[in-house]
Amino acid sequence: MKSSRWVRQWRSSSSQHGWVAIGLHWVSALLIIGLLALGIWMVTLSYYSQWYHPAPHLHKSFGMLFAAILLFRFIWRLINHQPEVQGKAWERQAAHYGHRVIYLLLMAIVVSGYLLVTAEGAVVSVFDWLDIPASPIQFERQADIAGWWHRWLSYLLIACIALHIAAALKHQLIDRDGTLSRMLGRIQ
Ligand code: HEM
Ligand code: HEM
Fold this sequence. Notes:
The protein is mostly helical.
């Protein structure tokens, strides 16, 4: 029987992302872009806006949901093959380190967000369904320091995502090596 042109296997191989990795990539991308937009918008709200309380609540809840997805993604990467990156040697190196930088930024943004919210020992309420307790480690000026890092690492992440998207489009449209189609589940 003729095989489908779209990926069917759930695990990744050395030539193809599996559908779990593909799903994790695109769900994470949507969540991250939403969290960035919501974060930037919500800090401009006045106390009298009807969104003054719900917007941060949604941001924190989706942020913690994303933290769980990120943790699962790390585990999934560890127990799966990584498909070979396409392109010249320097491009493969750049992608290798670039992806690591993105993961590190995401981890640091989640941790700083958590430390910011729990600075006074408060819990993080996730969709009014689950309360995540504050860390037993508290430090001086925790909210200021964590807030500073949360903001500036998020802005740095935006720059990295812009570069990442430009690289993906360059591979797809100029080099025509199918990098983006592969992340969309097309079999090479
Ligand atoms: C990938 C995940 C996340 C991204 C991309 C993100 C992004 C952002 C951005 C861009 C801002 C606005 C910063 C500013 O201009 O001042 C912000 C603010 C904020 N974020 Fe996040 N965030 C994430 C996860 C979280 C998590 C997990 C929490 C807490 C549990 C959190 C709590 C907050 C809070 C409380 C603010 C308001 C800070 C203030 O009032 O200055 N964020 N976030
Ligand atoms: C918030 C947005 C995004 C983040 C944080 C992100 C992050 C990542 C990371 C960490 C990888 C490494 C592979 C993995 O571990 O799954 C990756 C792969 C990839 N991303 Fe994104 N991504 C984002 C959005 C996008 C967008 C919008 C595009 C398309 C224009 C894109 C195209 C790709 C492609 C084509 C690959 C596969 C590279 C390869 O197979 O060598 N990403 N992305």
